[in-house]
Design a protein that fits this description.
CATH topology of the largest domain: Rossmann fold
Order of helices and strands: EEEHEEHEHHHEHEHEEHH
Low-confidence stretches: none
Helix content: 25-40%
Largest sheet: 6 strands, mixed
Mean pLDDT: 90
Number of strands: 10
Number of domains: 2
Strand content: 15-25%
Structural class: alpha/beta
CATH class of the largest domain: Alpha Beta
Shape: globular
Radius of gyration: 19 Å
CATH superfamily of the largest domain: P-loop containing nucleotide triphosphate hydrolases
CATH architecture of the largest domain: 3-Layer(aba) Sandwich
């Protein structure tokens, strides 16, 4: 595996620990004995080719699927715990911005963002409304509380999904292909927003994407998964990996080269 160029906060206690994780579906192993850590305030981007296990890893990290073996800890809590008190803590500490926004079409943006606050807090309605306005303002959607999702562009829907993911002030935000389906200008605007929220609120972020420009725009570190290896084959600053990687799979990915060039001498 390519030597990792360290993220400055790697000296701190990790927010997320993936410990010897093996996972898959049925009898099919997708990830095997994966070990990684995510550090406070970091934007970690997960990359790799189709079928390498990016989505599988994210689902494990947010506790959606059970692993075959190993564990995932978020702030010291096992995400697969059966303890309801512990699970309640995790729900407040993890936010997920899904690829398509995953907004409820029959609900206004305000109602969508208010939903987790109504579900997991006992805040009065006026305080919930204040938080909703604040979160929508943070994603440049101030004044759109009463709009329905289908009245907005794709980029605006993604930003609304981000506002909902931030409603409970989570410790960690997960993004599933945030730039997918967006035009280049809107994608860059979303990258800038993600970086701004990360810097301003010091939220740890884990992002799945295959968009190279977004990777270079937002990532503090990347980890690259490989289908045949069933795990991590490279980790570090994406620019460092682009220039220094000796593994053809890593070099070709970050330099946008076809796989047929894998025999190239470096």
């Amino acid at each position: 595996m390519v030597a990792e160029k360290r993220f400055p906060n790697q000296g701190e206690k990790p927010v997320i620990v993936v410990d010897r994780l093996t996972a898959g579906y049925g009898e099919n192993i997708i990830l095997e004995d994966v070990q990684l850590e995510v550090y406070p305030g970091e934007i970690l981007v997960i990359v790799g080719g189709s079928g390498c296990g990016k989505s599988t890893l994210m689902k494990q990290m947010i506790g959606l699927n059970l692993p075959f073996s190993g564990k995932v800890l978020v702030n010291g809590i096992n995400v697969h715990t059966e303890d309801e008190t512990e699970r309640g803590k995790l729900r407040r500490e993890i936010g997920v911005a899904f690829q398509a926004g995953a907004l409820f079409g029959s609900m206004t943006l305000g109602e969508n963002v208010a939903l987790p606050l109504q579900e997991y807090t006992n805040l009065p309605e006026d305080e919930i409304n204040r938080i909703v306005r604040m979160k929508l303002g943070m994603v440049n959607l101030a004044g759109y509380e009463n709009y329905l999702p289908d009245e907005l562009s794709g980029g605006m829907q993604k930003r609304a999904g981000l506002a909902r993911a931030m409603a409970l002030d989570p410790m960690v935000l997960f993004f599933d292909e945030p730039s997918a389906g967006l035009d280049p200008v809107t994608a860059v605007e979303l990258d800038i927003l993600i970086k701004s929220i990360n810097a301003g609120m010091e939220i740890t972020m884990v992002v799945i994407t295959h968009e190279l420009q977004s990777i270079f725009n937002i990532a503090h570190r990347v980890i690259m998964l490989d289908k045949e290896a069933r795990g991590v084959i490279a980790a570090g600053d994406p620019r460092y990996l682009k220039e220094q990687a000796q593994d053809p799979r890593v070099h070709n990915f970050f330099n946008r080269l076809p796989a047929r060039l894998k025999e190239r001498n470096f």
